[in-house]
Write a structure and sequence with these properties.
The complex is a heterodimer of chains A (317) and B (136). Chain A is 59% helix and 0% strand. With 317 residues, chain A is mainly α. Chain B has 136 residues and is an alpha+beta fold. Helix content of chain B is 37%, strand content 27%. Chain B is built from five helices and four strands. Classes of the chains: A mainly alpha (317), B alpha+beta (136).
Chain lengths: 317, 136
């Protein structure tokens, strides 16, 4: 499937404690970056297809436009056919980038298209924060040699010789972006909410607020929101844990148990938000956000035997 | 490169300005008391009874963040009447509504949200921003 250099354990620095703190020193095999391209691509294309009606609906809107991000360059809403064209173009670019076809062009088109769509979607009075992280990751991938392995590009051209750092740096940068965004979210709680956020009942009130908001808008609140809101004493502990998880994100760069412990804690935090507030952050919930911290090429190279039937057939010939 | 990306990510924090894709990530960061103001639109029957509409009827979305955010923005911008008429048009064709809905109201309601979550009476105050008839 690949024409890129074989995996070289000597280039595998991601597991070495502390190495990811020095981003330029990190090395990785091309397959690791390729797997991140595939995971982020599959996630984002699936996200676009599932949310397709929501994005299409944006084309019908005429009032209440307040441009956010790149959409702030617009004077007002664009025609519905423009929204649909950008949406279809981004999906097509996303599929091509995911399979690594003409990645230098399609990777950029995919990232820019997603940036445009998410900006436009947040330009109607409510800035959403579900899409920031994967848009940033797509931008990193767009300008990285992410299609040197496990791609259509790699099949139709001669192998490319690059240093392990060429593949490791984009992954380290993506991991660094994850860490920074969580720290910024933790800082925001202390900055805007202060110690009251940690020591008071703010988190409980947020859970109750989310349930009430859904209720008055005709939605169905989480069935567990009511029972847990009534439990006293746990909310300051949960609030402190939330802020601690966010501020402690840099420990993920240490690798090993520190990394996995933090990822598990962050995932549990998002799962709690989903269960209690019915607010889902799919990118971390599906673990794709945390992929840059791991030797993710092993998802394929160490795949179970029942997925290796093609290999057996090939070797039998 | 790393320094540039770090600087770009920290810039919104420094200037305290949220955006996309660079953000201050302020989700749920404000302190929140037990009493909260919530915007919504509700259906009114000929007999004066009121009932909830749906996310789709109120805001053409299944996301409460989007529906509430846009309705709040409309009220803040003085577009409550316009928004009310749009909601009423959607309510007229909504299969989930009672037959005798005659009007839609765009309101801000202040609730004790903790009391509401635990099943107690919660409404503290209601402000009607707009009322409009549902087309026949």
């Amino acid at each position: 499937m690949t024409t890129a250099p074989a995996l070289d354990p000597s280039t595998d620095d991601a597991e070495r404690p502390g190495r990811q703190l020095w981003l330029v020193d990190v090395g990785a095999p091309p397959e690791r970056l390729a797997m991140f391209r595939i995971l982020a691509g599959v996630f984002t294309v699936a996200y676009l297809l599932i949310r397709f009606p929501v994005f299409v609906q944006l084309g019908d809107r005429e009032r209440g436009f307040e441009g956010v991000g790149v959409a702030s360059l617009l004077d007002g809403p664009v025609s519905s056919w423009v929204v649909v064209a950008v949406l279809l173009g981004t999906v097509a670019a996303g599929v091509a980038a995911t399979v690594g076809a003409f990645h230098r062009v399609t990777g950029v088109a995919f990232a820019v298209g997603m940036l445009a769509l998410s900006s436009y979607r947040s330009s109607w009075g409510q800035l959403l924060h579900f899409e920031h992280l994967f848009v940033l990751h797509l931008l990193v991938l767009a300008f990285a040699p992410a299609a040197d392995a496990w791609s259509l590009d790699a099949r139709r051209r001669a192998p490319v010789e690059r240093s392990p750092e060429s593949y490791g740096f984009p992954l380290a940068l993506a991991a660094w972006i994850v860490v920074l965004t969580y720290v910024i979210a933790g800082v925001a709680k202390l900055r805007y909410g202060g110690l009251d956020w940690v020591l008071g009942d703010t988190l409980r009130n947020h859970v109750a607020y989310s349930a009430a908001r859904l209720d008055v808008l005709g939605g169905t609140p989480s069935p567990v929101a009511g029972p847990v809101v009534g439990i006293g004493g746990v909310w300051p502990v949960a609030a402190a844990a939330t802020v601690l998880i966010e501020l402690a994100a840099p420990v993920a760069l240490l690798g090993g148990k520190w990394r996995t412990g933090w990822v598990a804690a962050a995932w549990a935090m998002h799962a709690g938000i989903l269960v209690f507030m019915l607010v889902g952050f799919p990118y971390p919930l599906f673990l794709v956000a945390f992929a840059p911290f791991y030797r993710i090429e092993r998802l394929w190279t160490d795949r179970p035997s029942w997925l290796r039937s093609d290999d057996r057939r090939l070797s039998a010939r | 490169m790393t320094a540039a990306v770090t600087g770009a990510l920290l810039l919104p924090v420094a200037i305290d300005r949220d955006g996309l894709p660079l953000s201050t990530y302020p989700m749920y960061s404000q302190t929140r008391g037990e009493q909260v103001s919530l915007v919504t639109a509700r259906a009114v029957t000929a007999g004066g009874d009121v009932s909830t509409l749906s996310l789709g009827v109120i805001g053409e979305s299944d996301d409460p963040l989007v529906v509430a955010g846009e309705l709040r923005a409309a009220i803040g911008d003085g577009r409550a009447e316009q928004r009310c008429r749009e909601i009423a048009e959607r309510a007229a064709g909504w299969s989930g509504s009672a037959d005798d809905i005659v009007a839609v109201e765009v309101v801000t309601e202040r609730h004790d949200v903790v009391g509401r979550a635990t099943g107690d009476a919660s409404l503290v105050e209601r402000t009607v921003h707009a009322r409009c008839e549902v087309p026949a």
